[in-house]
Write a structure and sequence with these properties.
It is a single chain. It is built from 3 helices and 9 strands. By secondary structure, the protein is of the alpha+beta class. The strands form 2 sheets. Strands 1-3-4-2-5-6 form a 6-stranded mixed beta sheet, covered by helices on one side. The longest helix has 12 residues. It binds zinc ion. Zinc ion (ZN) binds next to loops.
Amino acid sequence: MGLIQKNSSLNSKNQQLVQKIENGTVIDHIPQGMSLAIYELLHKRIALDPKKTRTVILTSTESKKYGKKDLIKIENTYPTKSEIDLIAILAPTATIVTIKNWEVVEKYKVEIPDLVPEGVLKCPNQACITYNGHEPVKAKFRVNRVDDTTSLQCWYCGRNLEGAILQYLE
Ligand SMILES: [Zn+2]
């Protein structure tokens, strides 16, 4: 696990502290407090190799637009579309910055998907057709949004996932 720098604001001293990366991904504008959940998500999904991949997690930095926010830098790692969709569910305000050879080559805001496809999350309902691999069907989830609240509903049994989505990762 990389450096965790807590309670910093992005003044010039701290910017020096958080070095630029040569190749990798910066996840910016994460709602305050969500960075560790996103790190855990990526760690579970990508199996980040600590020898090749240094991770910097900055919590509670100042953002003009969003107030306090978190930020993650991950070396030599580029999340896939389905990983970015999960990041969007955890952190709808996040911006993904792709860095190659010290340059920003792409920068975009995440978009909450309408569907979490098969093979990403498990349904906890024991009566669900997807439960425990009884049938060759894997769970997928509708993403329902009401105002600022996002919920995930199993496509097959209609069960809503409660609590942290990390516990339902395949
Ligand atoms: Zn289900």
